[in-house]
């Protein structure tokens, strides 16, 4: 199996790393495709905990290590493995994954549900706006010596962030081990710690392209976020500080010259696939009242149908109905809308969400928007 995944992704993980991830795999969560005695494909899922808007946490089957041998591609191995893998997800209302290529997973009902924007701050000449406070309180620390505090901040951050994931102790072991193979040519981690936030970063490059890349920033308060950015933007000798984050990040609003913050790429992050549509729609809170009948198609698993969704004071009731539908869409569209990162009106413009009345689309936009931007907790 390690050989198939190494061939698929071009990386080999250490035994310790494999063991840490294996500790998140429920029994029977691995499926392989075989040609005779030979394993030619793999797919598995991890037992993850996903935060949804409003702070509820759903058990999520986190699909990972999907690979088919280059000798056996485009013969249905992935489709066969996915049918079996999803049959084994009976305990999960929702599944998620990260996609190596965006063409692959829509057919299985997955939709992109968070957006990864990479920002670069060209920090020479960058100044903070005079109205922005300077809260201080940040220390440079050795992360292993502050593990309990880091875990506590991460827990607070993920509980309030749609798309956040619980980081189990075995994964903290891995983060703190800081293995050479995960550094991608960068230095070991540096760690900045504030009572309500932390940032890990690595340094890259030669004299002419000196770069600090933030690999994780978790801030449980707005003050902690500002305090950490004050230090990161102040990293003398570095030309650029980079981070992958959600759209609309505060960084541009902190500086007198927002042009010094450039977007270098925009990609999808977490993809979501609803397995129990009413349970998932009832789990999150909403920003406006709503009365709508959704007709959801699901060719892959047949879990779609017609559902009445009613929201009052932020909370939803959702149940199958025989009433006429107001809205028609594929289950992947609902996955994309779920954390608020993509709007119903965007899909309506593309004719991928069809409503009899444009007021229904506006009502969906108003209800599904999330005041906390969605962000993938960590890669899996
Ligand atoms: C992606 C991968 C797993 C697909 O496996 P596969 O066995 O070739 O896929 P299947 O033959 O079951 O294809 C199922 C359908 O998806 C389509 N498909 C599969 N991979 C695709 C891709 N990369 N781009 C576009 N379409 C793709 C097939 O054309 C097929 O469509 P059809 O049902 O309309 O005929 C395989 O190419 C692979 O291992 N790639 C390298 C590793 C990787 O990227 N893994 C995914 C990690 S997220």
UniProtKB/TrEMBL annotation:
Stretches assigned to the N-acetyltransferase domain: 1-133
SUPFAM superfamilies according to UniProt: Acyl-CoA N-acyltransferases (Nat), SCP-like
Pfam families per the UniProt record, alphabetical: Acetyltransf_17, Acetyltransf_9, SCP2_2
Active site annotation, chain numbering: 105, 380
Record: residues binding acetyl-CoA: 66-68, 74-79, 100-101
UniProtKB keywords: Acyltransferase, Host cytoplasmic vesicle, Transferase
The keyword Cell division is assigned to this record: no
Highest rank taxon of the organism: Bacteria
Family: Belongs to the acetyltransferase Eis family.
Oligomer and partners: Homohexamer; trimer of dimers.
UniProt-recorded name of the protein: Enhanced intracellular survival protein Eis
Species classification: Bacteria, Bacillati, Actinomycetota, Actinomycetes, Mycobacteriales
């Amino acid at each position: 199996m390690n050989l198939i995944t190494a061939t698929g992704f071009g990386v080999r993980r250490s035994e310790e790393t494999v063991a840490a991830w294996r500790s998140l795999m429920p029994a029977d969560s691995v499926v392989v495709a075989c040609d005779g005695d030979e394993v030619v494909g793999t797919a598995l899922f991890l037992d993850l905990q996903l935060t949804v808007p409003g702070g509820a946490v759903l058990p999520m089957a986190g699909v990972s290590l999907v690979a088919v041998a280059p000798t056996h591609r485009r013969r249905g191995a992935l489709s066969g493995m996915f049918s079996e893998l999803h049959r084994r997800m009976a305990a999960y209302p929702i599944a998620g994954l990260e996609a190596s290529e965006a063409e692959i997973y829509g057919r299985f009902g997955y939709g992109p549900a968070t957006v990864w924007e990479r920002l670069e701050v060209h920090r020479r000449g960058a100044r903070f706006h005079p109205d922005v406070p300077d809260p201080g309180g940040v220390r440079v620390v050795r992360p292993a010596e502050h593990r309990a505090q880091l875990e506590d901040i991460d827990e607070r951050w993920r509980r309030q962030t749609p798309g956040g994931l619980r980081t189990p102790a075995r994964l903290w072991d891995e983060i703190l081990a800081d293995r050479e193979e995960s550094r991608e040519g960068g230095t070991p981690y540096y760690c900045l710690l504030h009572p309500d936030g932390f940032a890990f970063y690595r340094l890259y490059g030669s004299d002419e392209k000196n770069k600090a890349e933030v690999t994780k920033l978790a801030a449980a308060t707005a003050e902690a976020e500002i305090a950490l950015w004050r230090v990161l933007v102040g990293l003398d000798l570095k030309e650029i500080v980079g981070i992958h984050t959600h759209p609309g990040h505060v960084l541009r609003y902190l500086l007198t010259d927002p042009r010094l913050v450039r977007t270098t790429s925009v990609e999808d992050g977490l993809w979501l696939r609803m397995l129990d549509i009413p349970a998932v729609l009832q789990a999150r809170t909403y920003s406006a009242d709503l009365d709508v009948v959704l007709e959801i198609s699901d060719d892959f698993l047949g879990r779609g149908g017609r559902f009445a969704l009613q929201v009052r004071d932020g909370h939803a009731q959702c149940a199958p109905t025989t009433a006429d539908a107001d809205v028609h869409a594929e289950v992947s569209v609902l996955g994309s809308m779920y954390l608020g990162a993509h709007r119903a009106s965007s899909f309506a413009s593309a004719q991928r969400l069809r409503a009899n009345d444009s007021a229904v689309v506006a009502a969906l936009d108003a209800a599904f928007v999330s005041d906390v931007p969605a962000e993938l907790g960590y890669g899996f």
